[in-house]
Specification:
- By secondary structure, the protein is an alpha+beta fold.
- The protein has one domain: Aminopeptidase.
- It contains five helices and five strands, in the order βαααβββαβα.
- It has helices at about 15-20, 25-30, 35-45, 90-105, 120-125; strands at about 5, 50-55, 60-70, 70-80, 110.
- Strands 1-2-3-4-5 form a five-stranded mixed beta sheet, with helices on both faces.
- The longest helix is centred in the middle third of the chain and has 15 residues, at about 90-105.
- The protein is globular and about 40 Å long.
- The mean pLDDT is about 90.
């Protein structure tokens, strides 16, 4: 299967959004502010070298958005279209993101995965991402349009 990995640009937004809504787990992770075109454009301006898309025949079938604060990185969005899973695409995307982050001097990456997303949790475990049980993840929405979460 001929799949190209390329950097994500804002011109990819419509295809990214279409990809995200193709999966129930990805739809759950979207919010109505940060995942708009404007929100993703802000994100890509801060992280121009660490976000990648998998493309087959001109169609985006996978994406990883990773960014950092100069110390640690986070995987914010990772999605492979349901029709293209189990082909190694996610692994390729993660490898590209990890290499890009290393080039920027980042030594540690974390990501958030829904507890009930067994396939994703198994994938990240297989890539060497350990489960932290000694931390509580807390968030606060500063915008009434963004749900606080469960």
């Amino acid at each position: 299967m001929d799949i190209e990995i390329k950097p994500v640009t804002i011109d990819d937004y419509d295809a990214l959004y279409e990809l995200w809504i193709s999966s129930e787990q990805s739809r759950r992770a979207l919010n109505p502010v940060d995942d708009t075109r404007e929100g993703i454009e802000r994100y890509l301006k801060r992280n121009p070298n660490t976000c990648f898309a998998a493309v087959k025949e001109g169609r985006i079938i996978g994406v990883i958005l990773t960014g950092h604060d100069g110390r640690r990185a986070i995987v914010h969005h990772m999605c492979v279209h349901p029709g293209f899973r189990r082909l190694g695409i996610a692994g390729r995307l993660v490898s590209c993101a990890e290499e890009a982050l290393k080039k920027e001097g980042i030594q540690k990456i974390f990501g958030l995965v829904f507890k009930d997303n067994d396939p994703a949790n198994a994938f990240w475990e297989s890539r060497g991402y350990s489960l932290r049980t000694n931390l509580n993840y807390r968030n606060k929405s500063l915008n009434e349009n963004i749900p606080a979460g469960e």
